[in-house]
Amino acid sequence: MLSIARNSLRPTITRMFVARSASLHTLPELPYAYNALEPYISEQIMKLHHTKHHQAYVNGLNAAEEAYAKTPSTKEKIALQSALKFNGGGHINHSLFWKNLSPVNEDGGKLSQGPLKDALERDFGSVDEFKKRLNSATAAIQGSGWGWLGYNPATQKLEIVTTPNQDPLISHVPIIGVDIWEHAFYLQYYNVKADYLNAIWNVINFKEAEHRFLEAVE
Q1: Residue 157 to residue 152: CA distance in whole angstroms
Q2: Which neighbouring-strand residues pair with 164?
Q3: What pLDDT digit, counting tens, does each position of 89-111 carry?
Q4: What span, in angstroms and rounded, lies between the C-alpha atoms of 149 and 162?
Q5: Residues of 20-54 as b/e, b for ≥16 C-beta within 10 angstroms?
Q6: Nearest Cα to Cα of residue 166 among 94, 71, 75, 111
Q7: What is the mean pLDDT of residues 115-125?
């Protein structure tokens, strides 16, 4: 009987293990080499940012979700909300950020005439004015956070939004996100945020941004 019980449990245990393994978040691979964004973002920054900082958010999210699933305590589930938000937001934001960038010899910095450019000119007056306003809003963030170009479904317009810490953008559909945490720029630009913010436009993947924009307005 004990042998039968053990055998009958094996498929269930296996399914549980497989399901848990499949649900684990993993670090996405970059669509370019670590040195591909130089001289605007250094290889050292990219490697540390991706393999250390983003990996830490992935690990933290997996740990928080596992703890949340295991605890029967409502109080403990509530206590885990901040870890889920911080690490989950960090994973979401960075997964978007890597696709947001592209080497100069590919799509980096190139904004062709099309729906996104038309919308930027409509909502901000010009592309240069858009960049200026996003840089200004992002530089003004106290501490760490993100500057965003987001699409507002309610107004059907592109708008500039900021979020603190690793909070993901929920009020708008994210089109372009700029990481203003020090780990994104300090080793290269030190405390001069303006230089980093001006440089990053050379490697912004506007083709990816336009793809997101078109999905948002469908």
Answers
A1: 6
A2: 145
A3: 999 999 999 999 999 999 999 99
A4: 9
A5: eeeeebebeebebebebbbebbbeebbebbbeeeb
A6: 94
A7: 98
Q: How far is residue 175 CA from its own chain's centroid?
A: 11
Instruction: Identify the band that residue 26 occupies on the pLDDT scale cut at 50, 70 and 90.
Output: very high
Burial class of residue 157, CB neighbours in 10 A (0-12, 13-18, 19+): middle
Exposed, middle or buried by CB within 10 Å (0-12, 13-18, 19+), for 109?
A: middle
8 Cβ neighbours under 8 A, 6+ residues apart: none
- pTM of the prediction? 0.88
pLDDT tens, residue by residue, 27-70: 999 999 999 999 999 999 999 999 999 999 999 999 999 999 99
With tokens 């780990």, the residue in question is 183
CA dist., res. 207 & res. 196, Å (int): 21
Task: Give φ, ψ of 201 to 5 degrees.
Answer: -65, -20
**Looking at the predicted structure, is the pLDDT value of residue 177 above 50?**
yes
For the record, the structure tokens of 131 come out as 């960049």
Closest Cα to residue 149, out of 132, 161, 167, 136? 161
Cβ pair 156, 217 in contact under 8 A: yes
156, 155, 163: which is closest to 216 by C-alpha? 156
